[in-house]
Write the structure tokens for this entry.
Amino acid sequence: DIAKFLHGHTHGVEQFQRALLRVTTSPELVQLADEGKDKEPRYTTREVLAAERELTEDVRKLAAREGHEVGQRDFVKVIAKHPELSAELRGALSHIVSTGDLKLVEGIAGGRKSSILGPAREIWEQAGYRVRGYALSSIAVQNLAPSGMPVSTLAKLEYQWSQGKNLPGPKDIIVIDENGMTGERTAAKVTRMALEHG
């Protein structure tokens, strides 16, 4: 990737080789562990590596906290209204509304994961929480809309936070759809805000 980028931004072999040497010997560049003899080496920057380490530590702290409790009665009442949910989806729903400050659901595309968000919102709201949904793109935001929660893009959320607006608190639930598509900087900001604001 580095060579491809430099190839399109340099003129001639000599300039390309000088630029490639300068980039690959930069103290900001960190080579990641090799994945085998046949694999190309992989690199990151010290800044990205530090952000990923901080994110990992914050995620561990959030996962260890036992907040955002909901009542079993609320769960049973809402589940009864949604007989269309399979046993697997009911299990995922039970997981995300159980006590804890960080919950993740992973599944195959088309696995109907988003179908549990409406019932989850109902359960959280009955327990007194404010639920908001976010996604990286406007299209993904549209996929969250049927859940009934207010939805927006992560870029808008970051902008609001930078202005001191819409800050989260202990009675907030933040749902992020397609989190795997989110860059480490955005994920780190959201995780840090959740950690600092309960």
